[in-house]
Amino acid sequence: MLPFQLNLLTYAALLQQAQQQTSRILQNYTNDARPDAPSAPPQSSRREEQQQSRSEEESQSSRRQEESRPPRRQPHRRCGFNLEAPKFPAQVDRSQQGKHPILRYAIPGSPLCYTFHHLRTNSTYEVYRCTGCKCMGTNTMIAVGVTVKMKMYININVKAINNEFLGDPSALSHDCLPAKIAQDKVERLVYKDCENIRKDKRRVETTTRKAWQEIENHIEENEGENETQKLDMLHYFHRDGYESRRSTIKRAIKSLDDKSCTMDHVPRIYSHFSDGERFLQFQTPDLHMYYSTTTIEKAQRFGLYALVADGVHDLQPDATAKCGQLYTVHGVCNDTMDAPLLYAITTTKNERTYELIFAQLKEELQRSGRLDRLRVVLDFERASIGAARKVFPFASVEGCGFHLAVAWNRKKDALGIRKYLRRRFVNRDKSVWMWWNVIKGIMFLPPALHKRVPSLYRPDLPRNHEAYQKCEEFLRYLKSTWYEGPFKGMWNKWGIKDTRTTNAAEAFHRKLGTLLECKYPLMSRLLEELKSCNTNAKGDFLNMERRPTDGRRLRRRDLRRREKILKMMAAYRSRFERRNTIRTSTNQIMKYCRKMATFVTSKTN
């Protein structure tokens, strides 16, 4: 058999097999179509039925869940704005909070206006709300004349683009009355000035009255579109006076205070100078000492020969609970200048506290040089005098001449002697006046001549004089307190050319009070001023180093007074310092005392 014949037979067999398979499939389809023939469901139809039943169950469960849930709220549809509406100009000004500006719309031909504050910002415009309507309590959301009521409150909104209103703000359904332009400008000006105060730390020293006056001056010089509006603004600002704005301005100034500084914690900005040198040198809960070692070294180098110490009871910080005092020690150098050396903040005023202060200062002075012929001038406080004598045993501890005169004048007034001395009183007596002048001038008399003064033993009055008993009582007080008491030997001023009083410390305290402008200041503010005072002392020492001939600058009347005292003592020195003082007559001594009495104060405080 040929090869091609074999291939034909194979092809015929395959074709016959395919025809038989096709006939069997057709027979199966015909059997399925018969109604009496038993049928078995195919596998695919079963799966479809199962999926359908599952979907029905899921839909029923979801329907039950939807029914059990509370009804959904309808989505809020915000008011739209007509961006093609006419534009009206807006005036930009300061808001109370300062985050967003306010826009003011001035009603044409009227001194009234509507003000709008920021509500929200959209992608293409901003929405502002009428300030007056918000304060009314009822609320209406409005968009360029289309009113949509929501709840029970009122918001009148209008959009602003590039400081221009889209639509007429005065045509809105306002529940408020328009405000006056001048009055609104005044309020915004106060907000702006208070914000400037909060941003400028240098304004911490500004007083409330001064800040109020600055606003008033600003209105007079720079505000108002015309003279009428300027006068209206000045009227509204000044209508209720200073008291109406005082608390607002005071809060702005108080916001600059640093309350973190206390007796227990002093931040580094206050405890050190800008160059890193320590300012706080000693710290306990009851005592702080502040000084610069550089200042003390310069004082020693330029001939420190006297210390003047005094305390003040109104300038201690509020951190001390208004107890204690601010105690300062000044140094006098070569009769050319005095400078504060040490500042102490204390809550107590006992002898132990003063011992710590003087011991700390003595230690610093000894590091810089020797202490030779040092004078310590104090007021007549027993605790400070006792401490100074313990710490400086070889120094001359002296009392203040001014405080001495004040103490004598108070005692004189308490005994009722004053009415015999003043010209305006009917009972003025010349003999009492002459006796009192001798007593006043005795502080400038050499101690060896005090026993030569008859007025110290008895009054120069007849015994039946009504003032005799009073003057005699004063002499007993003089003897018990000043000649034999705790102040014995520390109040005579004979031969002392300068630094007879604690006026250097007193003047410093007055200057410090002027800078602080208040009693019991914040501790942070007090320390800032004390650091500035140390800077002043540094400048004084530089001036003394580079211009040593300047000397101490005194007022003309103080300079004349000093020259007269020195001239008077020089004129009597040759008489009083003779070996044989018997030649000096009593009349000369009493005459000298009366002349020197003119340089003693008559004040009682």
TrEMBL record:
Composition bias, Basic and acidic residues: 45-70
Domain MULE transposase: 322-405
Region (Disordered): 25-85
Family annotation (Pfam families): MULE
Name listed for the protein in its UniProt record: MULE transposase domain-containing protein
Species per Swiss-Prot/TrEMBL record: Cylicocyclus nassatus
